[in-house]
Design a protein that fits this description.
Elements (H helix, E strand, L loop, with lengths): L13 E5 L4 H11 L3 E6 L19 H6 L3 E5 L5 H12 L3 E4 L5 H4 L4 H7 L4 E6 L14 H7 L20 H25 L12 H4 E5 H6 L5 H8 L16 E5 L5 E5 L3 H10 L3 H5 L6 H6 L1 H13 L3 H11 L3 E3 L3 H6 L1 H5 L3 E6 L7 E6 L23 H7 L5 H14 L1
Parallel strand pairs: 1-2, 1-4, 2-3, 4-5, 5-6
Antiparallel strand pairs: 7-8, 8-9, 10-11
């Protein structure tokens, strides 16, 4: 199923992305997915370091191609006056600037908020950093791993008798990128609302402080920690690692089936629990008044998990899932990448889109990429392009956006090529 809208909702919005890795570029990707023109500025030579992360073959990783889809790549050297002046000229023609350098870097380059505001009054600036633009840790560098630790997430991930683990993706970066994109949309909405006042209210541009989005990685992670701190302060509770379980909620866990596959079963609702126990042949547990609430089931979680594990171990994954679906118990398979690629639900919503890309094997290959979320219509919006080659759009952007002549573009690209 293809979802081909006549116009994307962010068409006409232009974004200047100054950043590397995942957090800032994720914000840019989200805006680009919905139609914004995102101009990604990369340094000469290596470009964004993400180009080489998990690079199995070829010159550009699939990670970069994914995070930077639907964008344009422009190579400029921000360590030179010409590169910085060109970036400032581009900012004059943009609605949004996204950056994820260490705090103070833009100011050091003469591209701080006040300079951008003077060049383009009303511009929205999204800044993503490890610890934010203020506070005693503002100047300290840090990646998502540190943010996940200080945000409280790492302490809860893993088994109780082992050191804290991490999830298998850079979740802290991605959450921060989501917040940055959301902040940009809020600021753009406020700016547009102020530009179209009611009859009785004069137009008033929101101050720069309200258009400068400050996202700290560790705060983005912390915001996802639900009632971790309120529970601690209200009740003295310090949550601990419980593996595949969720503290205070039972039974909800992963279980191994007889064919070696695993499933997740979330049977922790009170009415669901009774159907669940009947489905696994344990009506005694379903009828036990002591198991009528989550709190009491949590106290007997080991007993419940043993009963469920015995049942799943005697059946294949498909048999387990079919029986639980009949009983109305939420359950699902634990998918690998291959499982996702073969799944009808993903296919029905166009959540894996195949595009030609250089994989280092000579001819371009059709590679599936994750679709665009959220849906606007019956299926994912189409991905227009994968992450670009380094500097692929430099001359096009300089000509179309800035009206640079061939000689001027030769001078700019000559500087960057000399450093490549």
């Amino acid at each position: 199923m293809r979802n081909e809208p006549t116009r994307l909702p962010l068409e006409g919005v232009r974004v200047l992305e100054l950043g590397n890795y995942i957090a800032g570029p994720t914000a840019g990707r989200m805006l680009a997915d919905f139609g914004a023109e995102v101009i990604k500025v990369e340094r000469p030579g290596r470009g964004d370091e993400l180009r080489n992360w998990r690079l199995y073959a070829g010159d550009v990783s699939m990670l970069f191609r994914t995070v930077n889809r639907n964008k344009k790549s422009v190579v400029l050297d921000l360590k030179t006056p010409l590169g910085r002046s060109t970036v400032l000229d581009l900012a004059r023609h943009c609605d949004v600037v996204i950056e994820n350098f260490r705090p103070g870097t833009l100011e050091k380059w003469g591209l701080g908020p006040d300079v951008l505001e003077e060049a383009n009054p009303g511009i929205v600036l999204a800044r993503v950093s490890a610890f934010g633009q203020t506070g005693p840790l503002a100047g300290r560098p840090g990646f998502a791993a540190v943010a996940e630790a200080m945000g409280g997430l790492r302490h809860l991930v893993g088994e109780a008798d082992r050191p804290p683990a991490r999830v298998g993706v850079s979740i802290g970066d991605s959450i921060a990128g989501l917040y940055a994109a959301f902040g940009v949309m809020v600021a753009l909405f406020e700016r547009e609302s102020a530009a179209a006042p009611s009859r009785d209210a004069p137009a008033a541009r929101p101050p720069l402080a309200e258009r400068a989005i400050d996202v700290a990685l560790h705060e983005a992670v912390f915001s996802m920690m639900e009632s971790l701190v309120p529970d601690h302060l209200a009740y003295g509770v310090d949550r601990q690692r419980v593996g595949g379980r969720m503290e205070g909620i039972a039974p909800s866990n992963a279980y191994v089936c007889g064919d070696g596959a695993s499933v997740v079963i979330a049977g922790n609702g009170d009415s669901i629990f009774q159907r669940y126990m009947d489905a696994i042949g344990r009506p005694d547990l379903a009828a036990d008044p002591d198991l009528g609430s989550n709190a009491r089931r949590w106290e007997r979680r080991d007993e419940l998990d043993r009963a469920i594990s015995d049942w799943t171990a005697a059946r294949t994954r498909d048999e387990v899932l079919e029986r639980l679906e009949e009983a109305g118990v939420p359950a699902g398979p634990i998918y690998t990448a291959a499982d996702i690629c073969a799944d009808d639900q993903y296919r029905a919503r166009d959540m894996i889109q195949r595009l030609p890309v250089d994989t280092g094997a000579g001819e371009p290959a059709e590679v599936g990429f994750p679709g665009i979320v959220p849906l606007m219509g019956p299926a994912s919006l189409p991905i227009r392009s994968v992450g670009p080659d380094l500097g692929e759009h430099t001359r096009d952007v300089l000509a179309a956006v800035l009206g640079r002549s061939e000689a001027e573009m030769d001078e700019i690209t000559g500087h960057t090529e000399a450093r490549a």
